[in-house]
C-alpha cells in the first residue's frame, strides 16, 4: 500500500494550523508543511507567539516544529514535494470545536474521509486512513463517497446550531412565564433521547462554522428546488439573530429606554471562551445595536487584540458605513475594572471563567447607580444573591431574577429596538 511520507496543508488558519500540527505530533515519521500566502501569519507560526490561541496548541507546535513540522510561504515547492495535499485530494471535513481543538484532534469522536468511488479515489482514501490510524482506532474512521462526507459536515453543524436556537427560543418563553431555562434544559437533557449537550441558552452562537454551514445547506436546498427544507434551516439563523436583537433591546429597556451617551462595559468579545476568534461573534452584533442607539462602549477581552475589535466593528455592515463612529463610541481596555469605571451597565457576552472571579463589590462601587449586570452567558448564576445584596440589578438570559424592575417614567419619545428587525441608524443632529 502507498505510504504517505510528506503532507502539505494549504491554509495556516484555525483549521489547517492545529490539524496539521497534531498530525505531525502524532506521526513523527511524516513531514508536514503548512503553507499560506499570508507572510505575517507564517512568521507568527514560526515564533513564540502563535497567531491563534488554543489550549495546548503551543506545546504541540513546539514539540515538532523544525523537526517534522514546518510553516512556509513557498506553496509551489510544498505541493510538488507532497504525497498528499490537504484541500484538493480528498474530502476530510473537520469537526473541531475552538477551545478544545487539540483535544478533539487527539481523541476524535470520528474521522470522516470521503473520496471518489474510483480505484484512484479508493487508493487515496486508504492512504489517508493509514495516517490517522497512527493514533485513531479504526472503528472511529468512517469512509464515504464525497457527497456523503461533505453533507455530513454541513448536517452536523446545522444540527448543533439548531439545538442552540431551539433552547434560545425557549429562553424567551421562560422570561415571559417565570420559568428558568437552565432548569428546563436540565429536565429535557436528562431524557436520553435528547441528551444535555448544546442546550445552553445564551446571546446566540457565533464562530466561523455554524452560520456558514447552515447557510450553505440553505443554498443547496434552494438550488436543488427544496424550498421547504431551505426555509426550515433558515429559521435556525433567524432565531439566532432574533436572540441577539432581543438581548440588546432588553439592555435598552432596562436602562430607562435610552442608552444614548451612556457608558456600557462589554466583557468578552470572542465568540466563546478559550479562543481569540471573533468571527460572527454575538458581541459584534450586540455592540452594533448599542452603537446604533449612541451608547459608549468600553470593551474588554483577555485574548482578543484591540486591532481585531476595531476592525470587526468598523466593517460597513456593522458601522452603518460610518467607521468614524467606532472611534467616537468604542474604547478597548486591557483591564475589566477600567471598563466598568463609571459605567451604567456591565454586559457579559463571552463565558470566560475569569468573569466569575471578578471583585464585584469593587466594580459596584465604581459604577453609576443604579448599576446593572446583563449576563448573556449565565456565568454568574451562583452569584445572584450576593450581587443583589451588593446592590446590582441583575438581568440574565431565560430567567427573571427579580419580579419587578426599578420604576421609571418613559420619555415622551423613546428610541426602541424592534426585536424583530435590526435597529435603524440614529439620525445625526
From TrEMBL:
This protein's pathway: Nucleotide-sugar biosynthesis; UDP-alpha-D-glucuronate biosynthesis; UDP-alpha-D-glucuronate from UDP-alpha-D-glucose: step 1/1
Keywords on record: Allosteric enzyme, Carbohydrate metabolism, NAD, Oxidoreductase
Binding site for substrate: 94-98, 153-157, 193, 200-206, 271-272, 377
Domain spans labelled UDP-glucose/GDP-mannose dehydrogenase C-terminal: 265-382
GO annotations of cellular component type: nucleus
Catalytic activity: UDP-alpha-D-glucose + 2 NAD(+) + H2O = UDP-alpha-D-glucuronate + 2 NADH + 3 H(+)
The EC number(s) this enzyme carries: 1.1.1.22
GO terms of biological process kind: glycosaminoglycan biosynthetic process; UDP-glucuronate biosynthetic process
Function noted in UniProt: Involved in the biosynthesis of glycosaminoglycans; hyaluronan, chondroitin sulfate, and heparan sulfate.
Quaternary structure and partners: Homohexamer.
Record-linked NCBIfam families: NDP-sugDHase (TIGR03026)
Protein name (record): UDP-glucose 6-dehydrogenase
Organism: Monopterus albus
